[in-house]
Amino acid sequence: MQQKLYFYYFQRLKPISVYEKSNPGCFSNNHFCGHLFAFAEQARFTAPSPQIESILRIGTLNLNYQNTNAEKISRLLLETNFDLLVVLEWQGKNLDLNILKSARYTVFLNEPRMGTHGVCIVGKNRLNLKASLIPSPVQGSCAIPVATARFTINDRHVSILGIHAPPPVPKCKKTTIATLQKICFWIDQGVLKRNIGVAVAEDAVIIAGDLNMHPFHPVMACFEKSGLQDVFREGFLRLMPTWTPGFLVPAMVRIDYIFSSSVFDVSASYSFSAPGSDHRGIMADLKIKD
User: Fold this and answer.
1) What pLDDT does residue 163 have?
2) pTM above 0.85, yes or no
3) Residue 4: inside a domain
4) 44 within a domain of the structure (yes/no)
5) What is the Cα–Cα distance from 30 to 25, expressed in whole angstroms?
6) What pLDDT is stored for residue 154 in this prediction?
7) Quick one: pLDDT at residue 170?
8) Exposed, middle or buried: residue 183 (CB in 10 Å: 0-12, 13-18, 19+)?
9) Residues with Cβ < 8 Å from 1, sequence gap 6 or more?
10) Of 185, 167, 165, which Cα lies nearest the Cα of 245?
11) Average pLDDT per block of 10 residues along the chain, 290 residues long
12) Is 98 helix (H, G, I), strand (E, B) or coil?
């Protein structure tokens, strides 16, 4: 029986004013209440035509380093028709890269690690992407390397930062916030302030990954102050919970993100389930503004 892949599809036209009116003071008084509501409908994923090269479908997925569903996840990912995917907690066996390669995807970065520190970047051949791994901008036992990548679309240079921030457990909490602050400092008005790995100063920026922080923590405001847009934000809402504390519990908290430079229009945003992971994957369709 063929397995079907279903997504939560975030349309950017919703009666947000109704939600705000029915929940007065919600976001000012309770940072977590936004996680309890996801205004989204379950719908079949609709991929743009491969000929529309101006649209970039970028995604990120934290696999869970203990995941044993490599083949199943890989085949499900093919259904998304992604252009570029940042994969976290890659340990070398929890994704079947050969399945993706057989569908004409290229592994641009392949840095497996035992535990939570591994990362790979997979994308369509046409991107001709360059990638490298750099040390964390902060020091300590909780520090996790940063993936950098660069490509050109519609004559515009774009740099990707693949981020896995340390978890906000007691021994790593200060490292989590410091990591996010350092990354924000690299960016101004949606472009890089300096060269970082293969990423080049003045490039438009996309950040994708597991930031291990809920969207209403004060540190998260620094990304929009740096000129980036949250692809799931609509007004005061930050939609799409992505992480569950247990496999029998629905995703409750949003800690996975895609931020993009304002040179992109966000056509749509998606969230999808990943067998064996405690994270939902997320994707966004981005188009360079005319």
Assistant:
1) 98
2) no
3) no
4) no
5) 8
6) 87
7) 86
8) buried
9) none
10) 167
11) 39 28 28 36 45 82 96 96 97 97 97 95 94 95 95 94 92 90 97 97 98 93 95 64 76 91 92 92 91
12) helix
> Is the residue at 227 inside a domain?
yes
Q: How many CB atoms lie within 10 A of CB 189?
A: 11
pLDDT of residue 53: 66
Q: Which of 35, 38, 32, 1 is nearest to 16 (CA)?
A: 38
Q: The CATH number of the domain where 148 resides is what? A: 3.60.10.10
Helix H or strand E encompassing 76: helix 70-80
Report the alpha-carbon distance of residue 50 to residue 83 in Å, rounded.
Answer: 9
Would you state the pLDDT for residue 204?
A: 97
At 53 the three-state DSSP class reads: coil
For residue 65, the tally of other CB atoms under 10 A from its CB is 20
State CA 69 to chain mean position distance.
20
d(CA 163, CA 146): 5
Q: Which long-range contacts (CB under 8 A, 24 or more apart) does 183-189 make?
A: 183/137, 183/146, 183/207, 184/222, 184/223, 184/225, 184/226, 186/137, 186/161, 187/223, 187/226, 187/227, 187/228, 188/226, 188/227, 189/226, 189/227
What is the residue range of 214's domain? 55-288
Number of domains in the chain: 1
**22 domain residue, yes or no:** no
